[in-house]
């Protein structure tokens, strides 16, 4: 692993390297704490503001309206000025917005408009995170260690969802939904202070802000021939798989709390908001370890990536389908845990496959892929709410998740590759 600000690779664990890995894991966790605050509080907020399913679907999906707009920008900025700087600057803004959301909602009686605006803004700010993180890891981590490193940092997404599900459910019952936003936003701002004080110098941030103010000027020699990049079937296969995995996860993330709350009214929120994510953390770490181990044992990289996607998109969708065909609370928790846990295998599949294909511009490429996933997420979350409202059954929503996952898996299995794309300029690109 190469530390931010250094050019020489460091492959042995060092205190500073461990500090960055742990810090990024925690940052990912806080990102998801803020992201899932609305899904966890959706039922209570709907009761307070009088929202029906369609209106709640608008608020739940509005996050992705903003999220899809800054993916490419975040990846490009990460490739140019350093992913760690992009992450810190965006986190300081989304932390403040999250903490201020309850106050914003009380400014007027137009609660739906204000909450939609707040979620769009949060999505805009969080949209740069994963492309910047991908850019950072693709430049600092060697291929044989990428899966575990990405999975370890990515485990923060399950950790953050777990914390919000457990602590947030308790706060929700005792102090009301605003307390969930105060907690996630406040913790994010504390994290920003820690990173600024101990891991990033003032000079680094000033230089990064200076570049942003002046604008990013790209010389002809540093331009990447994007036409060559997007001519490759393997690139489109990666984009399709990322689209499917992101869309499926966003739909489940948005609607699972409501599914359990309405299907099993007497169940405890801390159970269904905690157990699936508690399972997902070790599952994600195991997938990263297994992926790197198989590659180090001599298995072809693309074979390992496709196997991970069979688990992350294929088998997970089977358990999602099972959710719509059971009336048992225990079985539903097991199926939800299996589906969410297996989706963490995507970190060791498509997420690192993008880094395999084009490490020098992995942030940009991930931004393109995740933009497509976020756009599909907007449609998917709204369509899920529409299907639930019109059919009166949750089976249709889970069938939608399975169909999206299966389509992305088939495309990746047919056209996915792990060989680095040749980005040397052709005559027409010069």
Automatic annotation (TrEMBL):
One cellular component (GO) term of this entry: chromaffin granule membrane
Keywords: Cytoplasmic vesicle, Lysosome, Membrane, Transmembrane, Transmembrane helix, Transport
Gene Ontology annotations of biological process type: ATP export; purine-containing compound transmembrane transport
Cited InterPro entries: MFS, MFS_dom, MFS_Na/Anion_cotransporter, MFS_trans_sf, SLC17A9-like, Sugar_transporter_CS
Membrane topology per record: Multi-pass membrane protein
PROSITE patterns hit by this protein: MFS, SUGAR_TRANSPORT_2
The family this protein is said to belong to: Belongs to the major facilitator superfamily. Sodium/anion cotransporter family.
Protein name (database record): Voltage-gated purine nucleotide uniporter SLC17A9
Domain Major facilitator superfamily (MFS) profile, first and last residues per copy: 1-420
Catalytic activity: ATP(in) = ATP(out); ADP(in) = ADP(out); GTP(in) = GTP(out)
Transmembrane intervals: 86-105, 112-130, 150-172, 179-199, 234-255, 275-295, 307-326, 364-388, 394-415
Pfam families associated with the record: MFS_1
GO molecular function terms listed in the Swiss-Prot or TrEMBL record: purine nucleotide uniporter activity
